[in-house]
Amino acid sequence: MASAFGHAYAAIAIGSGFQDKIRSWKFLILGMICSIIPDADVISFSLGIPYESFWGHRGFSHSIFFGILLGILVTALFYKKHFLTRTGLQYILFFSFCTISHGILDALTTGGLGVTFFSPFNNSRYFFPWRPIKVSPIRATNFFGEWGIKVLKSEAIWIGIPASIFIVIRKLIKWKSNDRENRK
To answer: Per-domain residue ranges for the chain?
Structure first.
């Protein structure tokens, strides 16, 4: 898995692509939580659930279907007045994208058994053919050391740089758009 830091930064980048009128600290924090929540499935290890099972690590909670469900749930709970509106759809898309980004990043890592993108309809596990991100240790205690440093360096290159470029491009587009509006 990618680390919580990598997942959270991806959510911030995704959020930068949405309209300013819906972006807020609450919006971004909920997006970061959505991007991290699929890894709550690590509790399955302590419950004796096999890694490769439906409820195992990188199972159902890493699927596209789960991402959409969580996006709907978060919007219904935190933005209920907007739920059946166009703005509500933007919230659902954002929270769903943040959650789905988790599985995408995990499928780019160097370890694990793959991601069940299409669960519950198909529980096959997938990796992308190109896997440049160093897999993060599951136990937090293992993160603080040489392994964690390697993970953070890898994520800085393969998540941080592309996400930062996206954020800067989004800001430049907004700046240009505002500049054109001010000239009118």
So the answer is: 4-183
CA distance 55 to 61: 8
Nearest to 40 by CA among 72, 66, 9, 76: 66
Residues with Cβ within 8 Å of 180's Cβ and at least 6 positions away in sequence, in order, are none
3-state secondary structure of 177: helix
Residue partners of 46: CB distance under 8 A and separation at least 6: none
pLDDT tens per residue, range 58-91: 999 999 999 999 999 999 999 999 999 999 999 9
Structure tokens at 13: 């980048």
Is 63:116 a contact under the CB 8 Å cutoff? yes
Could you give the angle at the alpha carbon of 9 between the alpha carbons of 108 and 114, nearest 5°? Answer: 20
Q: Which of 91-105, 137-151, 161-175 has the lowest mean pLDDT?
A: 137-151
Give the pLDDT of residue 181. Answer: 75
Give residue for tokens 């470029």: 165
The residue type found at 98 is C
**pLDDT of 146-155, one tens digit each?**
888 999 999 9
Query: Can you say whether the dihedral through the CA atoms of 70, 73, 77, 78 is positive or negative?
Result: positive
Residues 6+ apart with CB under 8 A from 11: 28, 31, 32, 34, 35, 98, 101
Provide the CB-side half-sphere exposure for 81 (13 A, CA).
Answer: 0
